[in-house]
Design brief:
Chain lengths: ~110, ~140
């Protein structure tokens, strides 16, 4: 059974690690937007959005990530994504978003960038 | 179920359509995805193709509902041999004029790109006061069930 949607934030010094789980769709996108925008607004360092436990993502959730990236750029915040699952990467590739985002396969790699 | 021949001599099997009618509520789109996955799996699609159809149907629902929050979506899933066709019709107002319409970051364009990549054909129309979308996906790794 798919993991339920959840967002959890962990602070490591200036770096904020946001763990997202479950399905990201039209139902969960508003909550995701609220969390990510608040995190970017309150952050003084890089924000690592960990999508390793995400089991589904659609265009509405991609829109949230694009909006968060725009907000991060305005604030001068470095936004990094962590994705390993091939079927999630595939959605970023077919929508041309791999060029927009900094994407790593592990949290350690994203944190070290 | 009914069977019919085709020029190659292969027997094609057309199943009874599966229909799903849900209120336009964001937390119920998951039912369309679950139905898509079940229909694709029963039609012999492999795991990747099932995932593709699940996402494509989600995008079709999002496009047809168009940010609306009222009315009903009726989905018909038709299996014909190695092809699954899905028709999604909105009975109620589309959301283009509603406050907070979620196309701020080009989500509609993203939906179309996803559908272009994942299915063989898709389209949408506004006819007789009703918004309707459809898609067709053929399995290239079809395993007859």
């Amino acid at each position: 059974m798919d993991e339920a949607f959840a967002v959890e934030e962990r602070n490591h010094g200036d770096l904020v690690h946001v763990v997202v789980r479950g399905e990201l769709d039209v139902a969960t996108a508003p909550t995701l937007r609220e969390h990510l925008h608040a995190t970017v607004d309150g952050s003084s360092g890089p924000v690592v959005v960990d999508l390793l436990a995400v089991t589904f993502i659609d265009s509405t959730a991609l829109g949230v990530l694009i909006g968060t990236k725009e907000l991060a750029d305005e604030r001068g915040t470095d936004l990094r994504l962590v994705i390993e699952e091939a079927r999630i990467i595939k959605i970023f590739e077919i929508t041309g978003l791999t060029d927009l985002f900094s994407i790593s396969a592990t949290v350690a790699e994203a944190s070290a960038r | 179920m009914t069977g019919s021949g085709d020029p190659s001599g292969e027997v094609r099997t057309m199943s009874e359509p599966v229909e799903l009618c849900i209120p336009v509520q964001s937390d119920l789109i998951v039912l369309a995805r679950l139905t898509a996955a079940t229909v694709a799996s029963r039609a012999g699609f492999d795991v990747e193709e099932v995932d593709d159809l699940r996402l494509a149907v989600d995008e079709l629902c999002v496009l047809v509902a168009d940010g609306g929050t009222s009315g009903r979506l009726t989905l018909s899933f038709i299996t014909d041999g190695d092809v699954v066709e899905v028709i999604c019709a909105l009975d109620g107002p589309a959301g283009v004029e509603e406050e907070g319409h979620p196309d701020e970051h080009g989500e509609r364009e993203l939906s179309v790109r996803i559908l272009d990549a994942l299915v063989d054909e898709h389209g949408d129309e506004f006819d007789d006061g009703q918004r309707r979308g459809w898609l067709r996906k053929r399995s290239v790794r079809h395993q007859p069930s």
